[in-house]
Amino acid sequence: QPGCPHLRQFTLAPPAERPLDEPDYFGELRTECPVSKVKLSETKEAWLFTKFDDVKAVLADPRFSSESGRDGFPIEGQPGGLHPVNVGMFIRQDPPFHTKLRRMVVPAFTPKAVADAAEFIEKAIVARLDALAALPQPVDLVEAYAIAIPSDVIARIMGVPASETERFQQLTERLVTITLTPDELDEAMDAFIAFCDEMIALKRAEPGDDLITQLITDRLDTGEIDRDRLLGFIILLVLGGHDTTGGMIALGIFTLLKHPDQLALLRSGQRSWGVAVEEMLRIHSVARSGPRRVASEDLEVNGFQVRAGEGVIPSVLSANHDGEKYGPSRFRDFTIPEERPRHLAFGFGPHQCVGQNLARVEVGVAVERILERYPNMRLVDDRVENVQVRKDRGFWGLRELLVDLGPAAEG
Ligand code: HEM
User: Which keywords describe this protein according to UniProt (predicted)?
Assistant: First the structure.
């Protein structure tokens, strides 16, 4: 459209010397060309939306379809294969079918359900903290802590017995690795599905107070869903909740260790942990590869025309760094605001993250408890420019977070 000739390769790569900032061209586009065509591959292009209000408007409008099978869907560069079981994933479906499926899992993630799970989440985190003390220093907190916690928590919600959580975590790790060959991915998927089938058989024999039992009793046995759909639910929850939450925990710890003045404000009670978590969710936007859509008809977004069949990337990362909405958003400027920032890190509209209440608690408690237990914890390398992000995962996160824990706090 007029005045916007840009056509660039779409990338989420940050500037090399500032690996925790958004790509520089996002800021340029927001001022010069807020909606611009980007190239995803030799043959595929999409509209990149960069301003907060426009991104929110796209996400709010279900006529922007989430069905990845539609022509024009801008799937390139997104994690996850197109295994047949993916048909069960409501993240890739539109209302009203999407709404019907989503409602089946929502009860396990309401604020009340998460409040009921708080005691277990706390215990899972303390157990991981206890285990850290026994490890040789320095410790990599990504593997030993950040990624382990969401895995423990989702395993418990689904009803995976404690004796199987390690196997569950190994199978999950494989499933979320995006550097596998198609054959390896099929193998990983088959191994995960075999595990799920075992769990379904176990829950039939010994029903529990857990999500898999509930879905079997209320949905599978009533004929509302079939086995593939149930597998799709389990896989979606694992894919959606694992590296996102784990990535945020490690980035949260790193962020506060790099900003001791802000950590001091939290410790003295001058700022709240809840607000700090929201600000970290905003600046890091770990699901930045996330929301993609295709226009199901000719549509208009705040005056901008999108034609039926055109792909759209409503960038939550760019929206969350929009200078018209927020103050400075570079990592080096990290400041915990007084008020909770409203952001799009969990998306918006019909597909807004199902697990957001859970993620907030997991990230908040995991980051707060480790900094309480190890008040003198130090980064082995504290140079931001040396930070390595994971290339083997679909969501944003640190490859490792090496720390010297230092002595544990008394009591
Ligand atoms: C959807 C981000 C944690 C399960 C989404 C979406 C975003 C997001 C941006 C919207 C996708 C779209 O519009 O296409 C995050 C972030 C997390 C997180 C940043 C952690 C920091 C979790 C957890 C779970 C979860 C812990 C569950 C255990 C889901 C599911 C959807 C979803 C099932 C699909 C919702 C739908 O299509 O209706 N998430 N997520 N997420 N998330 Fe999360």
Answer: Heme, Iron, Metal-binding, Monooxygenase, Oxidoreductase
Q: What DSSP designation does 373 have? A: H
Q: What is the pLDDT along the chain (411 residues), one digit of tens a residue?
A: 555 767 789 999 999 999 999 999 999 999 999 999 999 988 889 999 999 999 999 999 999 999 988 989 998 755 554 455 554 588 989 999 999 999 999 999 999 999 999 999 999 999 999 999 899 999 999 999 999 999 999 999 999 999 999 999 999 988 888 888 888 888 888 999 999 999 999 999 999 999 999 999 999 999 999 998 899 899 889 888 888 999 999 999 999 999 999 999 999 999 999 999 999 999 999 999 889 999 999 999 999 999 999 999 999 999 999 999 998 899 999 999 999 999 999 999 999 999 999 999 999 999 999 999 999 999 999 999 999 999 888 889 999 999 999 999 976
What's the chain's length in residues? 411
Structure tokens at 314: 């409503």
Q: Check pocket membership of 225 for ligand 1, CB cut-off 6 A.
A: no
CB distance 319 to ligand 1 below 6 Å:
no
Name the closest-CA residue to atom 38, ligand 1. Answer: 351
Q: Is the CB of 91 under 6 A from ligand 1?
A: yes
Question: What span, in angstroms and rounded, lies between the C-alpha atoms of 294 and 282?
Answer: 25
Q: How far apart are CA 61 and CA 350, in angstroms?
A: 8
Q: Write out the DSSP string of 197-258.
A: HHHHHHHHHS--SSHHHHHIIIIITTTSS-HHHHHHHHHHHHHHHSHHHHHHHHHHHHHHHH
Between the CA of residue 107 and those of 110, 267, 356, what are the distances in Å?
6, 34, 13
DSSP-assigned letters across all residues of 109-146? GSHHHHHHHHHHHHHHHHHHHHHHHTSPSSEEHIIIII
Cβ of 291 closer than 6 Å to ligand 1, yes or no, is yes
Dist CA 276 CA 262 (whole Å): 9
Q: Is the CB of 245 under 6 A from ligand 1?
A: yes
How is residue 90 written in tokens?
A: 């409501």
Contact 406, 133 (CB under 8 A): no
- For residue 246, report the distance from its CA to the centre of ligand 1, in Å: 13
Q: Are 236 and 158 in contact (CB under 8 A)?
A: no
Give the helix/strand (H/E) hosting 87. Answer: none
CA-to-CA distance for 222 and 294, rounded, in angstroms? 34
CA of residue 132 to ligand 1 center, whole Å: 28
